[in-house]
Amino acid sequence: DTPLDWIEPLSGEEKDKEAFVVLIGGESMLPAVRPGNYAHVSSRKPPIKDEMCLIEMHGGEAILKLYSGRDADHVFYEQYNPPLKGKVNLSEFKRIFYVTAVQFRK
User: Fold this and answer.
1) 101: nearest Cα among 64, 68, 69
2) Does residue 89 contact residue 74 with C-beta atoms inside 8 Å?
3) What pLDDT is attached to residue 25?
4) Cβ partners under 8 Å of residue 9, min gap 6
5) What distance in Å separates the CA atoms of residue 11 and residue 33, rounded to the nearest whole number?
6) Residue 42, number of CB atoms within 10 A of its CB
7) Phi first, then psi: what are they for 51, rounded to 5°?
8) How far is 85 from 25, CA to CA, in rounded Å?
9) What is the per-residue pLDDT across 50-95, written as a single tens digit (0 to 9) for each?
10) Contact 96/54 with Cβ under 8 angstroms?
C-alpha cells in the first residue's frame, strides 16, 4: 500500500511517541477547520475547555469538536457548522484527545 500523504511532525511532537495526525473529512467545524486539513493530536495532553478535541468512538470513527467539559455521564462539545452544542455519552466513546494544531493540506 502507498501512503496518501506525508506529514512532518510539528516542533515538540517528536517527544510524544504516540502523537498522531488525522485528515479532516467533515464540515462541522467550518470555517475554522476545512475538509482536507490535518489535525495534530496529542496522546498525552488532556482536552482543554474551549479548544479543539478529537473524540474517538468505539466503532473507530472520530469527531473533531470544541471541548466544553464533562460530567459523570457525558462529554460536552460545540461545533460551528451548523452552530450546535452537543454531548456524547461516556459509554459511546473510547478516548478523547487534545488537538495541538490544525494544518492546511498542501
Assistant:
1) 64
2) yes
3) 92
4) 19
5) 21
6) 19
7) -120, 165
8) 20
9) 999 999 999 889 999 999 999 999 999 999 999 999 999 999 999 9
10) yes
